[in-house]
Amino acid sequence: MTHAADLPLWAALPVAALLLLGAGLALAGSIGLVRLRSFYDRMHAPTLGTTLGIGCVLLASMLCFSILQSRLVLHEILIAAFMVITTPVTLMLLARAAVYRDRQEGSREVPPLPPAAPRAERTEG
Amino acid sequence: MSATVLAAAVLAAQIMLAVAMGCSVMRILRGPRAQDRVLALDTMYVNAAILMLVFGIRTGSTHYFHAALLITLLGFVATAALSKFLMRGEVIE
Amino acid sequence: MRRRLPTCVATLGLFAMWLLLTGNVSPGSLLLGAVLAIAGSAALAALAPPKLSLRRLSSVPGLLRDILVEIVRSNNAVARIILRPGGAKTRRSGFVRVPLDMRSPYGLAALACILTATPGTVWVEYDSSDGTMLLHVLDLIDEEAWVRIVKDRWERRLMEIFE
Fold first, then answer.
1. What are the transmembrane regions (chain C) (predicted)?
2. What is the reported pLDDT for C88?
3. Nearest residue on chain B to A41, judged by CA atoms?
4. Which CATH number is C57-162 given?
């Protein structure tokens, strides 16, 4: 921690708060992974870490390095943009794989493929 | 003063993230099904990326940023390939 | 010009990414970045993505702000659900089938990303033959309420932009 003394207190406090918030959200997501009962419930837990969790830590990192190097350090935006694009894609792929596997085994937790009948429903909206 | 605040916050964040990675390892080991393990692996990748960023703030070096970027990239590819594998039983078809 | 819009956006996006990654603005790096960005977007155009038509770009900032607010709000809600001791009995989770009116592939992709990125809802599958999608909700109180939320809060506004 040689460089941390260079950081003024008004910057150190938000960096520390953002770090704690981000790490806390990631921890809450991973606890949810262990505590929740079914796979489809657990699927929601990691989103905590992948949205606001990593977002807070990236913001803390941007703030810290921008002040330390006294220029705007923005490359953390790359990770943020990348997470925004990839997280929904991986979760959707995984959800579809899980639904497919459960349907193959005839599990009753998953609704079956829609029959062609309830087609009339959508005209009302 | 600011050094102690930051040091305490960084240490606490590192401990929380280590526990979070432990939780996901537990889910990888316990299963019960393959999709649970893949989901836990994806969570572990993200936690590792966050841990790398915290290391970067701790040491004041931007090298850890590149490690975090690589981890998120590899995590995406790994999870996408594994989901594809779960769906069809083969990655390349 | 309208037709070229996605290519221009891709070029600018790749160039910005290159600048952020290298972090210097020397002439050599700018030139290499420009060449890579143009080559990359030409490769993208060769894939012939479906045509993108955007209307009402003025409502995009408001939508982005609402997405951010919604993500913060549902992060809080899901963290409470996870950390609440013994709350598994009272909470019910389940699937909801939502009929959609939107047909634009870009709009559907945006809707899928919004719903999946907010904690508490995951987009599971879309059936293009009858235009319904399957949503999994962590805290399911009322199916009808969720259908209304999806349609009123997101689908209507995305249709304004993409269709």
1. 7-24, 30-48
2. 58
3. B36
4. 3.30.1370
Contact assignment for C93 to A25 by CB distance below 8 Å: no
Neighbours of chain A (3+ CB pairs under 8 A): B, C
Q: Which residues of C touch A45 (CB under 8 A)?
A: 78, 82
Candidates A42, A47, A93, partner chain C, best to mutate (most C CBs within 10 A):
A47
Domain ranges of chain A: 8-106
pLDDT bracket for residue B19 (50, 70, 90): very high
Q: Do A36 and C101 touch (CB under 8 A)?
A: no
All structural domains of chain B, each given as residue ranges with its CATH number in brackets, are: 2-88 (1.10.287)
ipTM: 0.86
Quote the minimal CA–CA distance from A17 to chain C in Å: 16
Q: Which amino acid is at A106?
A: G
Q: 3-class SS at A111?
A: coil
Q: How far is C162 from chain A (nearest CA, A)?
A: 18
Interface test with A, best of B26, B39, B90 (most A CBs within 10 A): B39
Report d(CA A49, CA C138) in Å as an integer.
Answer: 16
- Chain A closest-CA separation from residue B70 CA (Å): 9
Closest Cα of chain C to A44: distance in Å? 6
- The CA distances from residue A6 to A94, B8, B54, in Å, are 45, 16, 17
pLDDT in tens, chain A (125 residues): 456 667 788 888 888 999 999 999 999 999 988 888 888 888 888 888 898 999 999 999 988 888 888 788 888 888 888 888 898 899 988 988 888 888 887 777 777 765 544 444 443 33
Evaluate if residue C154 carries a pLDDT over 80. Answer: yes
- Nearest Cα to A82, choosing from A48, A66, A58? A58
Listed in sequence order, the residues at least 6 apart from A92 whose beta carbon sits closer than 8 Å to its beta carbon are C112, C116, C122, C123, C124
* Mean of the per-residue pLDDT values of chain B: 88
Rg (CA), chain A: 21
- The pLDDT value given to residue B87: 83
Beta bridge partners of C123: C135
